[in-house]
Structure formats: C-alpha cells, structure tokens
Amino acid sequence: MQKRDLVSAKRIAFQLLKFRNRSRQEIRDRLKKKCFPEEVIIQTIDFLEQLKYLDDSEFALSWSQARLAKPLGLRRIFFELGQKGIDKQIIDKTLQKLKQGYHESEIVEKIVKEKIKRMKSLDEYKAKNRIYGYLIRRGFNPDTIKEVIENL
Question: Is 12 found in the same domain as 25?
C-alpha cells in the first residue's frame, strides 16, 4: 500500500460526502470501482468513522426522512436501505422511529384523492388500477391501499 493511495481514497471519499451523506457500503463500492486495494478502503472508512463523517445509523435516519417526504412507503424505504448496505438491525430501529409519527393511510388517502382528480376522464376501474400500481411502486402497504381505494 502506498501512502498516495490512502490520500487519494480519502480525497475521493470526502468529495462523495460533500454532495450527500453516504453509507459505509456506498463509500466501499465507489472506492472499489476506482480500483483501490481493500486495505486502503478499510483504512479510509475507519478514518471517516473516527471523524464521525460516516455513521450508518444517522445515514439511515436522514435517508428515510428524506424519502418519506417524497412521499414513499416504509416498504420501499426498507428495500432502499438494504440496497445501500445498511445492516438489518439498523433498518429495523430506524423504521421503528419513523413509525411513531407516521400515518400511512392518511398519506395514501391524500395521494389517491389527488390522482383521482387528474384521472376523471378514465374509467373508474382503470383509474383505480393505475393508482394502486403507482402506490405499490412507491412502497405503500397493499392492504392500506385497497382499504383507502375502496372507501373513496
């Protein structure tokens, strides 16, 4: 390992973190893509963690809050955090925190009402199917979606 490799890896990691918070796995993947040796990647990640620039728990919470604002459902957020390499225990803890002030049926109802207004020209059955598909892709619970759609 050359000292130059470590300095370059740190520089690249800082550039990535300048734009947004990242998970350990995201930094690892990007450094691997740049062909850094595993030893350099480990040292870089350890360095960033010591400086508190990398924290998967904080990343998971901030990512989840940003994704809820889109709005996305908890199922989609769970999936995305898994893709980002976040440990399942951290994901579960994060989702437990998010569920405290989260009312999925209200969010789904609001989206359904907005979508129905835009789809007035469509057949009711077709409109409901499109809305259902849209909400499923956004990660909302299928049972909640069905219940809200049936009650409108």
Answer: yes
